[in-house]
Every structure is written in structure tokens, then in C-alpha cells.
Amino acid sequence: xxxxxxxxSWHGLTATARDWFDLAGWWAYLPPLVADGAxxxxxxxxxxxxxxxxxxxxxxxxxxxxxxxxxxxxxxHADTFGGTPAAIFYGAASVSAVILFDxxxxxxxxxxxxxxxxxDSPAPRFRPLRWLLHFRQTWRAWKLAIGAGISRPSEALSAxxxxxxxx
Length: 167
What we know:
By secondary structure, the chain is mainly α. It contains six helices and no strands.
């Protein structure tokens, strides 16, 4: 999923190298290696930091910085040969790869935090029809679940029934 936007960005950056900088042959790979390659290296460092439980803020910022450079070059170059649609496509290619990678890092970090017990359980998600038909009961069950750290709607309803029996 991340490879396709990276390939589109690579294509745009090599075209930029040929058309703007008159780089030929292997030299045309220099701009994508500088922009996207550096972003990839910073992404690996950010992944390592995340997996080790350290802050990845600095490395994630570097990924965004290099992706912005890549997107800027892609937008400027694509606009000259394909107009606004091409500029949007090639710019979005650079940014979408970073967004997807950043979402992956956040997911990994969230999983680690849950394993350490430092993240609250999610609130139970009752169906809209239940809210519509049994609003008061659903509200009380939802409120009880938040206080007790219950995530499953069925458990929240059972806990509500139990608490009402005790009262």
C-alpha cells in the first residue's frame, strides 16, 4: 500500500532531475534518494524508536520534512507538464505514503501502551437503534461502563442490570 505512492513520487522526482537539473543516467536518481531515501531512513529510525518504546517525535518530524520536500518538488514539476491534476496527484503521492506510515507507527505505539496498561479501554459502542429505542437504559449503561472501564456493550448492560438489582 505504501509502495505505490512511493513509486509515483520516485517517478516524479526522477523526471524533475532530468527536466530541471539536466541529470542523466544514474544521476537522475539523486533527488529521489535525497528526498524519499532520507524520509525512508528517518522512517526506519522512527519505527525503531516506536518499537523500543522511545519517543519517535524527532524522527517522525524528519520524515514529514523530507516528504514535504519531495511533495514540493513533485507538485512544482508536475504542474509544468500536466497542470493542476498532475500536481495534485504527484504531491499527494509523497504525502500519502507518510500518512500511511505515520498511522502504522501510531497503531504500534498504541498497542504497546495498551500492553503496558497505560491506555483506557475504549468506550462501549452501542448501536444507533438501541440509543433510539432505549435511550435512558443505554445512557446509564454507557455511563457505568465508562466509570468501570467496560468496553463491551453486553457487559455494560449486564453490569447495569446487576447494579439495579442491588439497589
